[in-house]
Amino acid sequence: MTNLYAESALVSKVLGALFYYRPTDYAEHGIEHVLNYQSGAKNCSELLVQFGKTLAQFKQSDIESLSMVHDEFFAGISDMPVPPWGSVYLDRECVLFGESTTQYKQYLTELGFEFNTHNNDPLDHIGLMLMVLGEVLEMQLEQDTKNELHRLLGFHLLPWSTHYLAQLTPRIPSGAYSSLIGLTQSLLSQLQNELNVQVEVRKVYFNVQPH
């Protein structure tokens, strides 16, 4: 189980960063170095194998092409076909900074987490939430944070992320970001199953229009 926490923490943090940061900002945030990751282990897990393949796709991709996809789907620069913020799905009004964001912010405060996001971005961006998941998984290596981990997955993340990623998948061009989405789905599914996370039934209000 220790390996699960350690591996999942690493993968979750990096996946979150790839969702959140623009490709042109990778160097500033140390992501360029991460793209050179190699497990080095002969019998590494399937999760790490797929992780390495996803990073290789990002490393081999053209920055301009990556930036175009990121700007359209994850940066909030224009109208978002599949918004990456939890409150759009969990709040009846489908707005940013809704009640679900307030609940999530309270959860972060209880954990002692503080964020200074770019341009006061909502904290429930899929990328930021995956980075938080990585931190909570890492905390579990040193102390018992199972309750906090289950709250994050079962109440704040999985009730909307499963729907979001499924809506996003057919709209993303094949390549690096498509691989990122697939790996994220695999990671979250594995954590839900391995940790026996009970997912809260929360109504999803936002459905993407057919394209």
UniProtKB/TrEMBL annotation:
Output the Pfam families linked to this UniProt entry: Nitrate_red_del (PF02613)
- Superkingdom is Bacteria
Q: Does the keyword S-adenosyl-L-methionine apply?
A: no
Q: Does the keyword Amino-acid biosynthesis apply?
A: no
Keywords carried by this UniProt record = Chaperone
Q: Which SUPFAM superfamilies match?
A: TorD-like
What InterPro entries does this protein's entry cite?
DmsD-type (IPR026269), DMSO/NO3_reduct_chaperone (IPR020945), TorD-like_sf (IPR036411), TorD/DmsD_chaperones (IPR050289)
PANTHER family for the chain: CHAPERONE PROTEIN YCDY, TAT PROOFREADING CHAPERONE DMSD-RELATED
This chain belongs to the protein called: Dehydrogenase
> Which organism does this sequence originate in?
Vibrio rumoiensis 1S-45
